[in-house]
Amino acid sequence: MLNFLQRLGATTLEIISVLGRASIFWWRVIVSVPDWRNGPNLLIRQIYFVGVYSLVIIIVSGLFIGMVLALQGYTVLVRFGADQALGELVSLSLLRELGPVVAALLFAGRAGSALTAEIALMKVNDQLAAMEMIGVDPLKRIARPRLWAGMIAMPLLALIFNTVAIWGAVVVGVYWLHVDSGSFWANMQHSVEFNEDVLNGLIKSVIFGAVASWIAVFQGYDAVPTSEGISAATTRTVVYSSLAILAMDFLLTAIMFGVG
Amino acid sequence: MRIRMLEISVGTFVLAGILALVFLAVRVSGINLHARKNDTYTLYAHFSNASGLTERAQVTVAGVVVGRVKSIVLDPKDNRAKVGMAIEKNLNYLTIDSIASIQTQGVLGEKYIAISVGGDQEVLKEGGEIVDTQSALVLEDLIGKVLTSLASKKD
To answer: What ipTM is given for this predicted complex?
Structure first.
């Protein structure tokens, strides 16, 4: 009994201290004064690594998700003679939920894990300590451009994901299953509102990008500097960011589209 | 040279994202730049039954969308539904004898409000009320009426 209580207490304290460290980390990275001389170059390099490198997986999975949505939606809708509503179904579910969430999950798996492994390895090699030694703040030099790059790249990736997915749905729905092209687009435009759907989806993906890269960079910083530590930190990044993204998505959906 | 390639690919990436946003705005959401939110005025109408009508439902004149339903509340004074509608500003010739009726798109479609413009001289202003209204057609009630009338004919 006492052992159990002790373990419960230890776990709780551990969780609280990790949350505290992560929050202080976030605060110090975001608040620190920007470095205008080197900043843009570092940022562009990081956008390249987290954004451009993720493009292939985003485009391919977007295409297939759009095609599958159109195929499944069509088989159900055609039973009620409502196959013209396919455009509405596909675009609303993509813009509001699937686009931001799936793009963020892919981003966490593709870019987040790489960020964690990179920073954790820097820690193992004492590169972070060496930076501090020569008077370079690793938070500014390493963490900040990666966080900002995540927040900038993520919405762009989600937008590209949505566009490709809708295009995939058009290929399947209009060219293959012969839903009428005019009513496909007209229904879509009729039901999709720019502020309500496109912008809210964009806000979601900015938040997901911030959360995913925050978790990734922090886990890298917080990793135990051994080879097991790196692998554990990388796993934690993917698991925690996926859970955080899905939970945040529910909250954001409830706030944005919930019964008000 | 490598830096240059890197910057070019980031630029392409950002441009692709912006183009995607433009595509989503223009082609998918069919954004309407001239219909801004602040270019509307509010009209009210009381319906004895507003079932199935939702906020943001369409308000049409002759089938053309001219506004959206803004609020639906129960008016405690006469137990009727008080519906607020945001109408486009340039539609400033709705007369006080206009008729507002709740109609359905198709048999099972969404409910919307159709306004038919009257011939009076006086024009509705901000916060004005359309007095003449027709409530939502409830399909179940209609079926029930048909059934009872059929039954009474048999007797």
So the answer is: 0.76
